[in-house]
Amino acid sequence: MTKYILQSGGLKNSKDKGGDFFNEVIKDLGKNPKILYCLFAQPRENWDKFFVYKEGLVDLIDSEIKPHFELAMPDRFEEQVKNSDAIMIQGGDDHLLKYWLKQFDIPKIWQGKVIAGSSAGADALCGSFWTADWRACMDGLGIIPVKFIPHYRSSYGSEDPRGPIDWEKAYKDLGNYGDTSLPIHALEEGKFVVF
User: How many whole angstroms separate alpha carbon 140 and alpha carbon 7?
Assistant: First the structure.
């Protein structure tokens, strides 16, 4: 059975710096889980730079667990998914991430894996979402039948020339967008939900 984890982004702002989230990702995956670190929501020139941040996650888990990380690459993605226990899809540009993920037969290729999406990574997995970057509602890939708002009620975007985000308006707008029967998960930074 595939396990999905939607995380709101801003792990560094949470009390445990993402410890609970990462421990949920690797839960029941043994002593040497294979984690595919997917940065498709970032421009290609940033992938290697951001890949080093994964090392901070290792400090948050039981010292007996030794995860192996691999950087996801589009030309090998399906094979990499096959050889991984969990795929961590990081945040960034929602459009860019959806462009890359639509190239593959998902969710079929990752059946039975742990799929953890953070911020835009979570957005892409949902039916629809509200994005702070575009300040608009958009359609996700519809893998999980929910609506999602990452970074909810945070200071995210507070220095934006458009002014601070009206989170209550974002929530209302998403409630009226698309399939109005879907539940909304509006999560504060560092929080996550498991499906």
Answer: 15
